[in-house]
Amino acid sequence: MHEIDAAIPILAWRAWAAALVVYGCAYLAGSLVCMRITTRATTAANVDLFLIRFTVGLALLPLAVLGAGQVDGLLFRLPWAISGIAGVVWFGFHLFDLRRARAEHNPVDAPDSPALSRKSSFDLSRVLGVAGWAAVAITLLVVLGRAFSPPINYDVLEYHLGVIPHFFEIGTIEPIPHVFYSAQPIATELLYTLGSVVEGTPWGGAHGLVHWGLIVIAALAMGRCLTAVGCPAATRSWLVVLFLTHPIVRKMTLDRMTDLTGAVFMMGGLLAWFGMRGGGEASGRDRLRSALLIGLLAGGAISAKWTNAGTAGAILGLLAIVASVGRPRTGSETEVRGRFDGRSGAGFHAAFLGLAAAGVAVVMIPWCAYLWRGVGNPFAPFAAGLFPTEAWGAGHLAFLMETHGATSPFRAEYWPNLFGRLNSFSIGPPVATVAVVILLADSLLRRRGLPPRDAAAEAGPDFARHSGPPAAANTRLVFALAGGIAIGCLTWGRLLHAADRFLVPIVAAQFIMLGVALARVGAWPAALWSRHVRAVLGPAAAAAFALWIMIQYWAPLMLSFGGYGFWDVALGRETEGEFNHRLQPSNTEFFGVVNALPDEARPLVIAEARRFVFTRPVVLSSVFDRSPVFEAIAEGATSASIRAALKQLGYTHLVVNEHEIARLLSFHPPPVLAKDKGFANLRGDYPDSGSELVRRYSGYVEFGPEQLDKSRRAPYAEMLGALRAEAIYISAPPAGYPAFWIARL
Fold it and tell me: Which tens digit of pLDDT belongs to each residue from 324-367?
């Protein structure tokens, strides 16, 4: 399926060039928005600026792709490569500007300077920090192999990547018919799409490299956020390793998932807040500029996935509220007086929150307009009662929510289910719990009147650069993080079967909270935490922490990659076909037969929504959508009339995946079967009962909440049986269930 013109896929230059163009375009877009944010003297500060530009650009670039995709063929004709090269050149200019700024501020280091003398002595904390960053680099290198091996996750194949061949086929950006997942904001998918457009094929390596770039940016952003809150250098890099290898985040490295984007934008918003507070020197205009950036990044997170509204969006929303509370610093009140009420600050706070809301609107209004135009609902698939459409109404939304177990905090099953799932999904360390315990202990010490050490002075200019007194600034940050974590978990808990990957922004927020807590430990009074104790116990604890991460989390990640054999494909030791046959032999053969049908064939696919696996045009539907079969079954229809109606609609073959029918009957059963005791018993024995489920209940999953009455179901079932007996391809004997089969209409 991959169209990588290289004997060794990882050396495919087109894929690398396409990914570079995507990130060059993103940097160019982010730089245009952040033009007033100038290069600073320190390298650390500029890493923050580079990340802010990248993240803002990644939030805005999908809007350009979306706009271009509304005109037939324009997406494939625009000079994306030129824009990408311009972005790369601009990035190089900023690097040169950084070197010049550093030279002006640090002409020559004195040979006897304290900094040099510290470097010459052995420092275990420094060694641990460097070792941690080496582990981060190795992790990123290992997961790079995934970019050049075939995707396997169902959701990835269905719509995360499934939209790309659909866009190539129709020449515009429109949802896949009958697949509601593609009728939502899909910002990350458009980044993948742009990479594929530049590479020239939906099945190359560009989308994998774009996804890998998000992992790299997430790692760097996490490191910079931990630095900003004063997390000790010895543990900072190891927290990044732990973040990348956390059981939930680790799933993002196994395929082209999109949930990591929300965490990237959330951390980008935090960096914008840190940078604009500027160690007490930020002006009112700087802080207002940070409000706009926070809003843009919150909108970017929501445009990547609706669920991010309750996680990354909640955190950045609370951050905007707490950031607007403090007055502009010395000198900045004079600057904003006259336009805002400098005495009460009410005008400033209103302007701050207004700009943050405007940033969200700038990103989300185009997406809402796209959904309004394409599917008739600006908040699709939600609010179906307010914006009902023929293809997706309130019944479909109710079916979706019912199968995911929608509940309320006021119901008895809510809280046990929530705590049980949070406990099982936090197979990794109880990050938030540890952070809360440390922060409560710190609060107790302060209440007892024990003054903290001057941690900012000891940590150096990189720490002092951030938002004035660390305790005050970090208290506001903890409020935003803790509140966002609570809102995110409570919102996520409303669905009893919500995927744990929706919590990736929450996982990232927990690590930043832990960074704040570790910074507070370093600021405890000397009577409790003497310099000698810090010199011995601190590095020893960090070393034990690092060893624990390596054994329990880092090593399993390495082993899992070896077990899948991603690098065998990336290095050309195994072909894509061999990889797919090894993992999913029956599916791979079935998809190959469908793709080998004549060019003039127009297959209608039943119980199979993975658009990416089909290299030819097909018509399919998700279990939650109205199947195209529905319009062929008129009142009083017979088996022959249904078959004739399907042929009249232009379909030439019926393609059926009975294995998926069995799975859908078990996990997403139509409401009409709710009172069928025989079905309930079979469903409870799945997968052992998969054969009997298909034999007895085939013909149900195509219709979801729009079930057929008995007078129409019987002829449809009869038609399925007749076509199955005439199948031109079947993966099992005609009497064997379940099977893959294809029949001519």
Answer: 875 544 444 444 444 444 445 678 788 889 999 999 999 999 99
Strand order in the sheet with 653-657: 603-606, 653-657, 740-744, 729-730
Say how far apart CA 429 and CA 309 lie, in whole Å: 25
Could you give the CA distance from residue 299 to residue 724 in angstroms, rounded to a whole number? 48
At residue 494, what is the residue type?
R
Mention every residue, 6+ apart, whose C-beta is less than 8 A from residue 422.
489
| Sign of torsion over alpha carbons 276, 278, 283, 284 | positive
pLDDT one-digit tens code per residue, 158-192? 999 999 999 999 999 999 999 999 999 999 999 99
How far apart (Å, rounded) are the C-alpha atoms in residues 332 and 329? 5
Give the pLDDT of residue 44: 61
CA angle (243 as vertex; 19, 11 as ends), nearest 5:
25
Please tell me the predicted confidence (pLDDT) of residue 478: 87
Q: What is the pLDDT of residues 610-631, one digit of tens each?
A: 999 999 999 999 999 988 998 8
User: Exposed e or buried b for every residue in 80-109, given b needs 16+ CB within 10 A?
Assistant: beebbbbbbebbeebeeebeebbeeeeeee
CA–CA dist 653, 73 (Å, integer): 29
Handedness of CA 598, 602, 604, 609 (dihedral sign): positive
Q: Nearest 5°: phi and psi at 604? A: -105, 120
Of the candidates 285, 245, 238, the residue with the CA atom closest to the CA atom of residue 37:
285
Place of tokens 């030279």: 103
Q: What's the rounded mean pLDDT across residues 370-386? A: 92
CA-based max dimension of the chain: 96
CA distance 559 to 552: 11
Query: Which tokens is 590 given?
Result: 């079935």
Which uninterrupted H or E stretch holds 605? Answer: strand 603-606
Tell how far CA 660 is from the center of its chain.
26
Give DSSP secondary structure letters for 229-282. Answer: TT--HHHHHHHHHHHHHSHHHHHHHHS--STHHHHHHHHHHHHHHHHHHGGGT-
Cα separations in angstroms, 231 against 44, 345, 470: 14, 32, 11
Q: State residue 40's pLDDT score.
A: 57
d(CA 43, CA 98): 7
- Give the DSSP letter string of 142-185: HHHGGGGS----HHIIIIITTHHHHHHHHSS--PPTT-GGGSS-
Residues present in the chain in total:
745
Place of tokens 């009869």: 718
Q: What is the DSSP letter of 406?
A: B
What percent of the chain is predicted at pLDDT more than 90? 50
This prediction has a pTM of 0.91
Percent of the chain with pLDDT over 70: 84
Burial of 645 (C-beta count, 10 Å sphere; 0-12/13-18/19+): middle
Read off the pLDDT band of 419 (50, 70, 90).
confident
